[in-house]
Structure formats: structure tokens, C-alpha cells
TrEMBL record:
Belongs to the ACC deaminase/D-cysteine desulfhydrase family. The modification N6-(pyridoxal phosphate)lysine is found at residue 47. InterPro entries: ACCD_DCysDesulf, TrpB-like_PALP, TrpB-like_PALP_sf. This is 1-aminocyclopropane-1-carboxylate deaminase. Signal peptide: none annotated. Keywords: Pyridoxal phosphate. It comes from Leeuwenhoekiella aequorea. Residues 28-294 form the Tryptophan synthase beta chain-like PALP domain. GO terms for molecular function: D-cysteine desulfhydrase activity. The keyword Transport does not apply.
Length: 315
């Protein structure tokens, strides 16, 4: 039977690094970054937080299989595969893109995310984009049950009540002195947990990595609090979209601060934060904490894309 104990005893304390730049001094603000990316070597940042109570629940329900959903470069797929393997769960990934299943060996060679998940023991079900869109239908669930029997079902991106509960543990006593908490947003689960875990004097600001106005309502499903705001100006055109300015920002940030960001989530957040600071968005003496939610495994896939297009890559 699966056992989650080892995994959740293994978390390291995430440090808080101060970002030292003339800009911060000039604007009179403090910017620091909570290194949630360091929480576990291979189960990254917020995906670790989101899986914690779900894996405990799967164990309690005596399920031996985890099933979840994602795109071909999904941080959540990689994290679920690794966490499942460490705890002794079988894992099944329902992957968007039927064509990826045609020549599995080739896919595994070309796609580091899927190659990693496969090596962790994940079994894949590749589905068409149409089928993927209907993945929450009872028809699709019945089909999965017929194929795989009983499983513990984790939604795409990992967001549910238990995921939000896990993300409530991101903030703690050492983060209490900050006035603003900033996070990247995909489905909204992570920021909902951060909002729930925030203190009354703190304001949580979210940087959506994608376009769309549905996020406010998604977040309200998981939190009653109102000390938060979404800043929608830094999605760079949508999910997994970016430009060379963002790539060069990420490369410069790494040179200057020795911290790796990714172009899907944390790079957009940090670009936005620094732009806001430059434009005097924050008043003097404001202390800002950015959450590094991890997600670095996706960089290889992005670099593939950039290389093929003959463009500069993430260093
Ligand atoms: C998945 C992910 C997010 C978004 O988390 P949500 O809970 O879906 O909003 C943010 N940052 C990174 C690095 C991620 O992998």
C-alpha cells in the first residue's frame, strides 16, 4: 500500500532572498523572494504544496492509483509522477495531444517533461484536444474507470479544496513582516491558499500567466477574504506565450541574482513586479515578498521551441 510519510517529512525550509538592486533603493522598497522552488529537488514549489493533502487523502481512501490531467509540458504532470513514485502510487497522466502517443519513444526522447514522468513510472493516456476539453464529463470518467478501475482523481493543474489547504502553508511566521505578497497564477488555487494564509495587514497581488476574466471568480470559490487583487497587464499575450524581452529579463535576472525564473509563470510575475516598482506603484518603505512557485522543469521544452526558431534561449 502507498505510504506518503517519507515524502512529507523531507521538506526543506525555504529561504527568503533579498533582491538587491539600485532600483529598490531608489524607490525605497524592499523586494524579497520566498524560495519555494527549493522545497523538494524534483517536486516543484506550489505543485508539492498542492499535492500534499491530496496524497494524504488518497492514502486514507486506500487508493493505489493517482490519475490526473495536463499538457505535454505540465509541471503538475511531472510533480504528480514523481510524488506518486516516491509514495508508491501508480500514476496515470491523461495528456492533451493524441499525436504524442503515435510514436511514444520519439515523444519521450523529445519531451523532457513526459520523459521524466515516464521514468517515474507514469502511464499515459493521450487524448485529442476535443476529448481533453470534455475530460470532466461523466462519460469521459466512465471510460477512464473502465480502462483503469478505481483511482484517486486529481484535477488539471491540481487545484481543489485540498490543494488550496496545502498552499495555505506557504506563508508562515517568517513572512509576517511583509506588506505585499506576490504570486503567479494559472488556475488560481495557489493564490487562493496564499490569500487564506495571509495576515490582515498583508495584501496579496496575483499575476495571471494567461488571459481571461474567469480567474476572479475561480479564486472566490476558495476564499472569503478580500485583501487581494489581480494585475492582468503582464500575461505576455496568454498562456505559454512570451517574447524575447521576457527571455532576456529572465537571463539578466539570473546573472544578477543567481535565481532561475521560468517564462510561463515566475518570470512574468517578477517582470511585472519590477515594472510596477519602477513606476512607483508601491509607496516608500513597502516590503514585498514574491513567491517563487518553482516550475523550472518546463524550461527545457521552451528552449527546444526557441532553438528551432533560431532565437536566443534561456541560459
Ligand atoms: C502551476 C504553477 C503556477 C500556477 O498555480 P495555480 O495554482 O494553477 O494558479 C504558478 N507557478 C508555477 C511555477 C507553476 O508551476
Amino acid at each position: 500500500m502507498p505510504n506518503t510519510e517519507i515524502l512529507f517529512k523531507s521538506t526543506t525550509n525555504c529561504s527568503i532572498d533579498t533582491i538587491i538592486e539600485p532600483l529598490m533603493e531608489y524607490q525605497g522598497v524592499e523586494l524579497a523572494i520566498l524560495r519555494e522552488d527549493l522545497i523538494n529537488a524534483e517536486i516543484s514549489g506550489n505543485k508539492f504544496r498542492k499535492l500534499k493533502y491530496n496524497l494524504l487523502e488518497a492514502e486514507k481512501q486506500q487508493k493505489d492509483t493517482l490519475l490526473t490531467y495536463g499538457g505535454a509540458f505540465s509541471n503538475h504532470i511531472a510533480a504528480t509522477a514523481k510524488a506518486g513514485a516516491q509514495c508508491g502510487f501508480k500514476t496515470i497522466g491523461v495528456i492533451r495531444g493524441e499525436e504524442l502517443g503515435g510514436d511514444l519513444n520519439k515523444t519521450l526522447k523529445q519531451n523532457k517533461t513526459l520523459g521524466f514522468a515516464y521514468n517515474c513510472g507514469m502511464h499515459f493516456k493521450f487524448v485529442t484536444r476535443t476529448a481533453y476539453r470534455d475530460k470532466d464529463s461523466s462519460y469521459f470518467k466512465e471510460e477512464l474507470k473502465a480502462d483503469y478501475g478505481e483511482f484517486y482523481d486529481i484535477p488539471e493543474g491540481g487545484t481543489n479544496d485540498l490543494a488550496v489547504k496545502g498552499c495555505e502553508e506557504i506563508l508562515n511566521a517568517t513572512t509576517a513582516r511583509f506588506d505585499y505578497i506576490a504570486s503567479a497564477i494559472g488556475t488560481g488555487g495557489t493564490i487562493a491558499g496564499i490569500i487564506n494564509g495571509s495576515l490582515p495587514h498583508q495584501k496579496v497581488i496575483g499575476f495571471p500567466a494567461l488571459k481571461g476574466d474567469f480567474l476572479d471568480n475561480e479564486i472566490k470559490k476558495y476564499t472569503q477574504k478580500q485583501n487581494w487583487e489581480l494585475i492582468k497587464d503582464y500575461n505576455f499575450g496568454g498562456y505559454a506565450k512570451f517574447n524575447l524581452e521576457l527571455i532576456s529579463f529572465i537571463n539578466n535576472f539570473k546573472v544578477n541574482h543567481k535565481i532561475q525564473l521560468d517564462p510561463i509563470y515566475t518570470g512574468k510575475m517578477m517582470y511585472g513586479l519590477i515594472d510596477l516598482i519602477s513606476n512607483s506603484y508601491f509607496s516608500k518603505n513597502t516590503r514585498i515578498l514574491a513567491i517563487h512557485t518553482g516550475g523550472l522543469q518546463g524550461i527545457a521544452g521552451i528552449n527546444n521551441r526557441l532553438q528551432k526558431a533560431g532565437k536566443p534561449t534561456i541560459k
